Amino acid sequence: MSDEKPEAKPGQPSDRRSDQSNDLPPAPVGSFASDNAAGVSPEVLEALVAANHGPALAYGDDDWTRRAEAAWQERFDAPVVALPCWGGTGANVVGIASVLRGWEGVIATDTAHVVVDECGALSRFAGTQVSTVPHHDGRLDPDDLEPFLHWQGSEHHVQPRVVSITQATEMGTLYTVDQIGEICDRAHSAGLLVHLDGARIANALVATGSDLPTMIRDTGVDVMTVGLTKDGAMYGETVVHLRPELAEHARFVRKQAGQLPSKARFVAAQVLALLTDDLWLRNARHANEMAQLLAGAVGGIDGVTTQGEPEVNAVFAQLPAAAIVPLQEWSFFWEWDLTQSLVRWMTSFATTPDDVERFAAGVDAILARHR
Ligand SMILES: Cc1ncc(COP(=O)(O)O)c(C=O)c1O
Questions:
Q1: Per-residue model confidence as pLDDT tens digits over 146-202
Q2: H-helix or E-strand containing 349?
Q3: Tens of pLDDT, residues 315-326
């Protein structure tokens, strides 16, 4: 399920109104619909204003972009190539397309954002086939690659080339460092590369107590999208190539894909603000803690079944089906799987304990009417 959908869809108030009266607790100020629903870290806005003095050469030939790349090289402790892009979908296209040839394909889970929520961008703009495998709590298992390896060398089949995994996963779960390492080892031993969609990489790092060299560089990830938008940035994500020799075509692909921001300094300035004093990790830690708080606050409510302790900043909950629309009307969030009455509540760097308290009070009040 994607994070932001501007138009009404099944489950939004305009579609399925309930007739609940207004005597409900005050709704939270923050939104539990998505970490993308949050605003921007004040430090990021300040950095954008500060970057707005005087001219700078366009298309990344500027001091902010050079400093952002150096900052990523320092964080990864490796000579990575860092390419700012406009957004996450585009960055995934650029990262993957830059290492594929025309007859090569991608393997990902059936819940991967690149499969479900990017409108087929990889098929259209990378001209590739994305083959899916059933997820295991959001994760891909190295054994899932096996059937595709039998096709290697046969001209009748798309040649498997990139395994794309997401950390943290779309199901709010995590790969351990060892699990990422196993996927990379299995992929590399068959001549495949590993792409990691890190839209929520900061949440994963703080949840596991790991760092970029351990989780990404040493496991063998070849190319990734580093996401900051859900973590306090306004826009823009970065493609990071860990093997510079694989980045040979990446700049051309980025330009063709429309993902080279002319005023790239304003993406880089956001990166620099979020890396300063580890704001990106502090924001992510707060988001994760708010998810823990929320899970605790709603866990005791009769009718709510949460799916275990949140690993990052998502709480998945099963509710009585009749309560979902009234609750959405009161404080909107996305359904995850209506066949199981499963919904998703996301927290962010901007979520407050008061938001959590109010939301739990509303869940309690509305479920009392629909149990
Ligand atoms: C896991 C994941 N990858 C990629 C993206 C894409 O980001 P964007 O909306 O900037 O294209 C998202 C956004 O929701 C996401 O959740």
A1: 999 999 999 999 999 999 999 999 999 999 999 999 999 999 999 999 999 999 999
A2: none
A3: 999 999 999 999
Q: Where in the chain is the domain with CATH 3.40.640.10?
A: 42-277
Q: How far is the CA of 153 from the centre of ligand 1 (A)?
A: 33
State if residue 231 touches ligand 1 by the CB under 6 angstroms criterion.
no
356 φ, ψ (degrees, to nearest 5): -65, -45
42-277: which CATH number, 3.20.20.70, 3.40.640.10, 1.25.10.10, 3.30.450.90? 3.40.640.10
Determine the Cα–Cα distance for residues 223 and 154; give it in Å rounded to an integer: 26
Sign of CA dihedral 186, 192, 197, 198: positive
Among 35, 36, 85, 196, name the best residue to mutate to test ligand 1's pocket (greatest count of ligand atoms within 8 A of Cβ).
36
Instruction: Name the one residue in this structure whose structure tokens are 């040979």.
Output: 248
